[in-house]
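Action item from last meeting closed. Structure (430 res):
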């Protein structure tokens, strides 16, 4: 009855949200590329490739989840040499990254709408032998079709914040049947086990493995390429560098002002800005230039030795750029809420700073600050003061990195543990 109502209301909901969704797609670009896949329509070549081998269907919403999915799938491939994957993603940026990074044994597709006829067409073409959601919501039609066809169905690196738990518990009678369709839920922290149990999930299907996202194994930054890019721009890569990673609106201007103040005592300092959404690059460049900075662009490598700032207007490279930074500011934490993942910067042996809003990584952020593995300035003034201290104290920078790596240690091996559970998933389905 719940799913019937869901499918009856789906077209109406689509009409309500379509204008905002269309504007977002237009802003990000490339929305026409493979658009039919969102409706479960695939060209002949794609259907032929999918029909040639059994595929594991892995779904990752956007760039962050795609990076995690790629890491997990490469680990799975080591244990399952015959593995073939159909990787679906929702956003155009996630799709572009997946297409660029995907090996030949992976088919990259857009996520089909979770509307009954659309999802049925997708199942008919993909014919999955196993379905894995990466930190994703559990869709009613996807879950129901997987259960009806006895396809093993898993959620990995499962996230369930206290806020999400409260929301789900209000609608427990609605969501519980779909959560119970999951054959395996791999959770990150001990507290997550109780949260999923409270929603009616069988405890036997919940496994505590740690966070793939926080697992330092397999995250190997390669600084050679960023150094080569900086050299080609006429910029010495050995200069002290302040890098703002995955920044959100307002944070770029703050970093510009902080940078200008820091140059008073560190005149050779260089600024690198990596916005979370690259479609904002032109707007950001305009604002930075208005603030008095000479800006070079990653996508247009024209030699500009007088540049004060490099704008990274590309995707999928940030982990490598962290490795050339002296200190790293983690975005979406000062002017926006949620925060971004600091792990790649830590694995690159770089000290991290983030603002007061790290809700999406609250436990990790709290552990880092509590153990002296990161600093958490609350505003622009304290960010300037903290960054200045770090720039002039190499010993303090090394101490932060060492403490931060200790915080990540409990998650070491989470990718391998997850891969091992997925390898035996078929035996536990049903």
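Sequence:
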């Amino acid at each position: 009855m719940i799913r019937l109502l869901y499918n009856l209301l789906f077209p109406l909901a689509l009409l309500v949200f379509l204008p905002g969704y269309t504007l977002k797609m237009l802003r990000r670009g490339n929305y026409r590329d493979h658009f039919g896949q969102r409706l479960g329509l695939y060209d002949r070549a794609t259907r032929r490739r999918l029909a040639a081998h059994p595929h594991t269907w892995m779904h990752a919403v956007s760039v962050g989840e795609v990076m995690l999915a790629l890491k997990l799938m490469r680990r799975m491939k080591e244990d399952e040499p015959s593995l073939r994957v159909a990787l679906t993603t929702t956003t155009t940026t996630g799709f572009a990254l997946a297409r660029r990074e995907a090996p030949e044994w992976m088919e990259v597709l857009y996520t089909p709408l979770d509307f009954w006829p659309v999802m049925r067409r997708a199942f008919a073409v993909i014919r999955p032998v196993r379905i894995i959601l990466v930190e994703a919501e559990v869709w009613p039609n996807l879950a129901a079709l997987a259960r009806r066809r006895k396809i093993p169905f898993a959620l990995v690196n499962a996230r369930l914040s206290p806020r999400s738990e409260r929301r789900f518990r209000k609608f427990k009678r609605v969501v519980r049947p779909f959560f119970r369709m999951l054959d395996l839920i791999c959770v990150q922290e001990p507290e997550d086990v109780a949260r999923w149990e409270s929603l009616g999930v069988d405890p036997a299907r919940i496994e505590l493995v740690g966070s793939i996202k926080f697992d330092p194994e397999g995250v190997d930054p390669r600084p050679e390429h960023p150094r080569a890019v900086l050299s080609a721009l006429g910029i010495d890569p050995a200069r002290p560098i302040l890098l703002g990673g995955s920044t959100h609106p307002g944070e770029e201007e703050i970093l510009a002002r902080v940078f200008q103040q820091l140059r008073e005592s560190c005149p050779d300092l260089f600024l690198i800005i990596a916005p979370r959404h690259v479609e904002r690059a032109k707007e950001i460049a305009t604002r930075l230039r208005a603030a008095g900075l000479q800006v070079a662009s990653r996508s247009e490598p024209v030699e500009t030795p007088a540049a004060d700032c490099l704008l990274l207007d590309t995707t999928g490279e940030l982990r490598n750029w962290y490795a050339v930074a002296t200190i790293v500011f983690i975005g979406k934490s000062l002017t926006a809420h949620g925060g971004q993942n600091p792990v790649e910067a830590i694995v690159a042996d770089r000290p991290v700073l983030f603002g007061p809003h790290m809700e999406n990584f609250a436990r990790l952020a709290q552990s880092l600050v509590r153990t002296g593995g990161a600093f958490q300035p609350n505003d622009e003034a304290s960010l300037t003061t903290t960054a200045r201290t770090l720039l002039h104290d190499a010993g303090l920078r090394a101490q932060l990195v060492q403490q931060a790596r200790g915080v990540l240690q409990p998650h070491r091996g989470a990718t391998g543990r997850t891969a091992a559970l997925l390898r035996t998933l078929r035996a536990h389905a049903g």
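Note appended to the action item: The mean pLDDT is 91.
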